[in-house]
Design brief:
Elements lengths: L4 H8 L4 H17 L4 E3 L2 E4 L4 H15 L8 E4 L16 H16 L3 E4 L17 E2 L2 H11 L8 H10 L1 E3 L6 H4 L3 E5 L5 H16 L4 E4 L6 H14 L6 E2 L13 E4 L1 H10 L8 E9 L1 H11 L7 E6 L1 H10 L1 H7 L3 E4 L14 E4 L2 H9 L4 E4 L2 H9 L2
Parallel strand pairs: 2-3, 2-5, 3-4, 7-8, 7-10, 8-9, 11-12, 11-14, 12-13, 14-15
Antiparallel strand pairs: 1-6
Helix pairs in contact: 1-2, 2-6, 3-4, 5-9, 8-9, 8-10, 11-13
Bound molecules: FE3-S4 cluster.
Length: about 400
């Protein structure tokens, strides 16, 4: 790789051990993927924050880097393994909380902003079209590439942290025009509405397009929440970290000649695939983390009602702060539902606590099944609330 004079100094250890280690990670990665050089990035989002995923080895790695390392650009975190302020309320064991707190302390020492969310674009981290960033969480990566037009590969936790410490990432993959070109056209002939149907549509498309970036047409209008859901489900069920959606994705591209059609039946099959025969004992809404519009809708649906089973509304702490001001938190919590910040159903240590989950997230079903061994019921937001309040 061609390195600038400053990058060579970083690699030589002149700027400290953490910078040197980070440059070693980035140049090794660039070497594997044939990157010619590094490119400056403006923001970083680090996944792999949960102690559940990191374990003691990950914690040691972070604490070691934090001895002399500091991030040099805007850097935030993906959800951790628990609500950092209110973990006792959600049944998190004290020994887990202690380890998770150490992980967060190491990130804080590194200068990382402790905003543990997979929807940074809802709390002011809005990269511009063409901007190079280094983000990790698959839905945030897909949303930023496909809806915002920013450029990022799906980074692993260590490579994102290395980008934060050096301000650079190897120039390969989705940072380059050639690799962002769609390879197959998808003509959507199904009518979809609401987040869960958009999640099902993304699953139906992803299963057929696999690792090819699709050019999707036939979607007349999609709300921010529907695109958020689509962006979470698509990379979960395909091998690609971006899509082009006609009228939405800002990149200018040629439409591929190979074409497939997605029918109503394909979407219905996807919904069936995510629905098991089961008795729900856990309801989780907010995968990806809830927006203000979702918080308002949930508050209005739960107003004056009581939940009969454990119900989590997961969102960012910033979003909860706004919901507090609007009075929505009080309404939601009066029902017995919990607003859970900083974490989610996939990264909290929930295995064995519940048997079956109801959610409006296709991605949530994937991780509910895979990480936690839950059976899944997949339904609209309104049906999730009905399920939560069912006697
Ligand atoms: Fe976000 Fe967790 Fe879902 S990171 S996209 S809420 S699995």
């Amino acid at each position: 790789m061609i390195l600038t004079a400053q990058e060579k100094e970083m690699l030589s250890g002149k700027e400290g051990r953490a910078v040197q280690k980070s440059m070693e990670i980035l140049t090794a990665l660039g070497g594997i993927f044939g990157a010619e050089k590094l490119v400056p990035v403006n923001s970083v989002q680090i996944a792999g924050v949960s102690y559940h995923n990191l374990g003691d080895a990950g914690l040691e790695f972070l604490e070691d880097l934090a001895k002399d390392g500091k991030v040099r650009i805007r850097t935030m975190l993906n959800p951790a393994g628990m609500d950092l302020e209110n973990w006792k309320n959600t049944g998190i064991p004290a020994d887990f909380a202690e380890k998770q707190t150490k992980v967060i302390d190491a990130f804080r020492k590194l200068g990382v902003t402790i905003s543990c969310t997979c929807t940074p674009y809802l709390i002011g981290y809005n990269p511009k079209i063409g901007e190079h960033i280094s983000w990790s969480e698959s839905s945030a990566v897909c949303f930023s590439n496909s809806v915002l037009g920013a450029r990022t590969n799906k980074e692993g936790g260590p490579s994102a942290l290395a980008a934060a410490i050096t301000g650079r990432t190897p120039l390969y993959g989705l940072h380059l025009d050639a690799n962002r070109a769609p390879k197959i056209t998808v003509d959507v002939q199904a009518k979809v509405k609401g987040q869960h149907e958009y999640g099902a549509l993304a699953l139906a498309i992803g299963k057929q397009t696999k690792d090819r970036i699709p050019y999707i047409r036939g979607i007349k209008h999609a709300s921010l929440e529907e695109l958020k859901s689509f962006s979470a489900s698509f990379p979960t069920y395909s091998g690609a970290s971006m899509f082009h959606m006609e009228g939405i994705t800002p990149d200018r591209v040629s439409v591929p000649t190979e074409e497939i059609v997605i029918t109503q039946e394909d979407v219905e099959d996807a919904i069936k695939f995510l629905n098991d025969e089961c008795e729900v004992d856990f309801v989780s809404i907010g995968c990806p983390h809830c927006s203000m519009a979702e918080m308002e809708r949930i508050a209005s649906l739960l107003n004056g009602r009581e939940v009969s089973k454990e119900t989590w509304i997961t969102t960012s702490r910033q979003m909860k702060g706004e919901a507090d001001k609007k009075g929505w938190t009080k309404t939601i919590e009066s029902s017995g539902a919990k607003i859970v910040c900083d974490t989610c159903l996939a990264v909290a240590p929930l295995k064995g606590r519940f048997k079956a989950i109801a959610t409006n997230s296709a991605k949530g079903c994937y991780y509910g099944r895979g990480s936690n061994g839950f059976k899944t019921r997949f339904m609209s937001l309104e049906e999730c609330i009905e399920e939560a309040t069912k006697a």
